[in-house]
Design goal:
heterodimer; A: 258 residues; alpha+beta; 2 domains; B: 410 residues; mainly alpha; Amino acid/polyamine transporter I; 16 helices
């Protein structure tokens, strides 16, 4: 089914991948992973982010319950994951989930297509002695956001949280992406429906309602003034940070500008 | 020519496959108790399932993603899981009811208690789910389900007061002795019977199994927009038969035998034989569809290989889920629980669970990044939003009405 085009475009959220920018949670998380032989191997249960030159870079798709369960909320998630690990302590993939290297991804459409067959595809990452610092996207999502007191005059969402992560194509490394900005909102329902990014705008009553709930969502660009504290689980937004409205002129990432 | 035959076959199987144990029991109960005064709910429910199935079918044809893929993508893993749990519980309940329905139909012919039939039926359902080809299963059972057209012939033979039935249907006049809450409860039950969520899980997953593309949207629409309404006519005929035979006597319908009795009254033994074939085909077909839907929903949420388009050993976990569902359903029925009671619960909880999957499909059907130019048009969106309100109201009202009316007993 891969390669079928509708109106000259591939069905799916990211047009022109891997050159296009996209939002990780909206466009990639929870999508079906399909192998080169057309078989289904799992969902994108989480995403591996690696720190490279001080920048967060997506490097792998995490698959399996070990990746999924921690995403069930800040309290329930870790509790479920602990129980899951306790069931069989001898299984390494219960602690460190299986990873599919992003280099194996051929295409991202309505599903994630790989270049490899499914035999022995899923295995935890084997790290060398000097391993890079890696995080999970799921840890970053739903982190609370603490704006600097000097920014309190701006229209921040009430109880701001990280809802999504915008990945931008790297001009220096074609085909690779890096975390460019954080989508910050009030954590209201409907953040994955696409209405807040201008991706969908119909039917009108639903678009109006969800759009209103997310009207204060902003983009916080990573870099100067933005500090992610992985230990505490919060993102601090300093005075120098660049913040922009989430949707401008009705276009979002992963969209063609037709 | 071959293409027209395929369309014709698709429509016929859609008609035959539309009616299941929920439609049989609920329509007969409502007909006996309320005459045709609740007949308006059937077209409302049928139009609703057409809107829902057409959107899900279009999404499946263009983006190749079935319902539960989209539920998780659009609602996230946590809300998606709650959604899965609710939808799975209702689909499994319907699965139990359908297997029970086959056993009850066999009891009608053999006089052997339905509990004794349950293991045999479960084994047969398990074998079909494991071995049968998807299209063969759908076509054979769908065509045999057309035997239920006998309800229409029976109604004609019974020679009812057509103008009286039409007046009841168009004025929606509640019988004097009934409460408005009971009337509303049965309206929700009929709505749930017509708009059972599994129908759409099965329909959209079937579309992916049969590798629909955007070119198949026309055929898919013909199946839905012609097949389902004609299937709905069967539901009305069942209600009409019960209204004519049981209504004047004040008898309530509590067994599957009573559902088929009007046909025997009108057409004798031949009619009864045909109706039993129809009962077995309709409930057996729906048992296969609900069983598969249990596997589809679980596999699509967690992402493991599913489907009949691959060999069983390639989708081992999916087939294990199917076998486990069959065993569990058989175990529940072996406790001698009344399948009619299970059916009554399943149609009401279908109404409760409906918005869980309807809403994400409505959103994705409007997403140009998935559907390109095949996104919902104005008509689909006006109907889509109208039904979003309607399924929301039915869902919220279902359980309070069930409690207040003591499942329609009050």
């Amino acid at each position: 089914m891969r390669g079928e085009h509708v109106d000259g475009r591939r069905p799916g959220p990211i047009q022109g991948w891997p050159e296009a920018d996209y939002d990780a949670a909206l466009h990639l998380l929870d999508r079906q992973v399909v192998t080169a032989d057309g078989r289904l191997v799992g969902k994108v249960d989480d995403m591996e982010l690696t720190v490279q030159d001080g920048v967060l870079v997506p490097t792998g798709l995490l698959v399996g319950l070990g990746a999924l369960l921690p995403r069930f909320g800040t309290r329930l998630g870790p509790w479920l994951h602990d129980r899951y690990r306790q069931i069989s302590l001898s299984h390494a993939d219960r602690r460190a989930p299986s990873v599919i290297d992003l280099d194996l991804v051929e295409d991202i459409g309505s599903a994630v297509h790989l270049t490899q067959d499914r035999d022995a595809l899923l295995r935890p990452r084997v790290e060398h002695v000097i391993a890079p610092v890696r995080h999970r996207l799921g840890e970053l999502l739903s982190m609370r956001v603490v704006p600097d007191p000097s920014r309190r005059t701006e229209a921040w969402p009430r109880r701001p949280r990280v809802l999504d992560v915008r990945l931008a194509a790297r001009p220096d490394r074609p085909g690779r992406h890096a975390v460019d900005a954080l989508v910050v909102g009030g954590g209201h329902p409907g953040g994955l429906l696409g209405y807040d990014r201008g991706q969908v705008n119909r039917p009108w009553p639903v678009a109006a309602l969800v759009g209103r709930l997310h009207r204060r969502s902003v983009l916080v660009f990573c870099g100067r003034g933005v500090e992610v504290d992985w230990e505490v689980g919060e993102v601090r937004v300093g005075e120098a940070a660049e913040v922009a409205p989430l949707v401008e002129r009705g276009t979002g990432p992963g969209q063609d500008a037709r | 020519m071959k293409r027209y035959l395929a369309v014709f076959l698709g429509i016929l199987t859609a008609i035959g496959g539309f009616v299941d144990i929920g439609d049989l029991v609920t329509n007969a109960q409502v007909g006996a108790r309320f005459g045709m005064s609740l007949a308006w709910v059937v077209p409302v429910g049928v139009l609703g399932i057409c809107v829902f199935a057409e959107m899900a079918g279009r999404v499946a044809a263009v983006s190749h993603r079935p319902v539960f893929d989209l539920v998780r993508e659009r609602l996230g893993p946590r809300v998606g899981f709650l959604n899965l749990a609710g939808s799975l519980a209702v689909t499994f309940l319907t699965f139990v009811a359908e297997i029970g329905g086959v056993a009850l139909a066999l009891q009608l012919v053999t006089s052997v208690h339905h509990v004794a039939w349950v293991p045999c039926v479960a084994l047969l359902v398990g074998l079909v789910l494991w071995r049968a080809k998807f299209s063969a299963m759908e076509n054979i059972l769908g065509l045999l389900g057309l035997a239920l057209v006998v309800f229409g012939i029976a109604l004609w033979q019974l020679g009812p007061d057509w103008s009286g039935l039409a007046r009841e249907a168009f004025t929606a006049a509640k019988p004097a002795g009934e409460q408005w809450t009971t009337y509303a409860y049965f309206a929700v039950a009929l709505f749930g019977a017509a708009m059972t969520p599994y129908e759409v899980f099965f329909f959209s997953s079937g579309g992916v199994e049969e590798r629909w593309t955007a070119k198949d949207i026309g055929v898919m629409r013909a199946n839905v927009l012609i097949g389902f309404p004609l299937g709905g006519m069967l539901s009305l005929a069942i209600a009409g038969c019960a209204a004519v035979v049981f209504g004047p006597l004040g008898i309530s319908v509590e067994t599957l035998g009573q559902v088929g009795l009007p046909v025997a009254v009108a057409l004798g033994k031949v009619g009864l034989a045909v109706v039993v074939v129809g009962f077995v085909a309709a409930t057996f077909g729906a048992a296969c569809e609900t069983g598969l839907s249990v596997g589809y929903a679980l596999a699509q949420y967690f992402g493991f290989q599913w489907g009949k388009y691959v060999r069983a050993r390639e989708a081992a976990a999916f087939h294990v889920v199917l076998v486990a569902a069959v065993l569990l359903a058989a175990g529940i029925l072996m406790t001698a629980v009344d399948p009619i009671l299970v059916t009554e619960f399943s149609v009401v909880f279908s109404a409760v669970a409906l918005p869980l999957t309807y809403f994400p499909i409505l959103v994705v059907a409007n997403d140009p990044q998935y559907l390109g130019r095949h996104v919902n048009g104005h008509v689909a969106n006006v109907l889509g939003v109208g039904y979003l309100v309607l399924v929301g109201v039915a869902s919220l009202a279902a359980i309070p009405l069930m409690i207040v009316t003591r499942m329609g007993q009050a």
